[in-house]
Design brief:
Helix content is about 75%, strand content about 5%. It has about 270 residues and is mostly helical. Strand 1 and strand 2 form a beta hairpin.
Amino acid sequence: MDVATARPRVRPLRWLAGAALLVLAAQLVWFLVTNPRLEWPVVAEYLLEPNILAGLGMSLLLTVIAMTLGSGLGVLLAGGRLSGFKPVVWACGVYVAVFRGIPPLVQLIFWFNLGYLLPRISLGVPFGPTFASWPTNAVISSLTAAILGLTLHEAAYMAEIVRAGILAVDGGQRDAARAMGFTPRQSFVKVVLPQAMRVIIPPTGSQFISLLKGTSLVSVIAMADLLYSVQVIYNRTYQIVPLLIVACAWYLAVVTVLSLGQRRLERHFGKGQR
């Protein structure tokens, strides 16, 4: 059979699947447009409401702070797990297991109620004199508890991401760098790290997006994030669904922008790979 005159094979299952998806999409659009309980005018009214924008700003601020601190701590934990010094490896492994195993909501509530377990926070010599102390409830506010809980939780995941990225680089790359006269630091910065970033960037971007959505959990400790700001309004107006749509719209918009940024970073660090 001549390939030039060959006709593409008809795939009826694909046509049926496409038609079913088209019908479902049309039904979804019809539902969104015609259902009066969605109250789109209310959504438009509160979309740019100052309190909601302030809550969105707080969510973004918490995400940036927790991601920055968590990444820094995660790098230290990854280095500890790769150090080969057994006590450090064991301690870092226990940290990762504990903070990955406990749900972030439980961690946030625990840190917010730390004053019950530890009435005062002291600074001094272990088992020795105390130089200064403060009431725990004065130190651990909603903001402090939110940053602490999200950072410690994020650090456990970032530790595994960084460790996996470094281990993904073939050992022969380090040997080749040493043969060229590179110091261990130069080998890591110029040879290992650029290759590891191709493995580290995609899950790190996903973690950043997941952390942004996870900031909604801080509403349970009365932290004025986006979800909490929405809840304050609908507890007063009883317009629950349209205000939840406002929150969903902002989360979706920010996540979309972050996803585009993540793709650009992936293309930048994956140039040689492709």
